[in-house]
């Protein structure tokens, strides 16, 4: 089993989780590559790209579709999550995570502003509090490319992939298979 994670911080967390499970530790290889250009073998039965598409500019998404189309075995599938926003629009500040661990409380906040024709800039604020008083705060800004479900389906079709919604619509999971399979 292969996992691809270009972010060193996210890769460290992933590797720690894999390491904690002896079965996964023997089966999972984590590559320090991006989804669109990963050195994957041919004949894959499944590919999963969760919360990835917005990190890829349109040309990189097209590279991902083309790679999946080439690498999937007959009957294989790519599963992707498609999440809003689907157009460059403001996203109001929202708490996305809140958890107590020991004596500390951790919070994550997100907001976004339009920053281009096909993109927004997310601002993520991460806070650590003790007894309601901030101990630390880190802010991270990053670009996120937006696209409607129809646009994503059109891009995928150009690479020979059919895209269809699976499961509950509010989850945003889509299954991509080679055209005609």
UniProtKB/TrEMBL annotation:
InterPro entries: Methyltransf_11, SAM-dependent_MTases_sf
Organism: Streptomyces capitiformicae
Lineage: Bacteria, Bacillati, Actinomycetota, Actinomycetes, Kitasatosporales
Residue ranges annotated for the Methyltransferase type domain, each copy included: 2-80
Highest taxon in the source lineage: Bacteria
Record-given protein name: Methyltransferase type 11 domain-containing protein
One Pfam family per UniProt: Methyltransf_11
Gene Ontology MF terms: S-adenosylmethionine-dependent methyltransferase activity
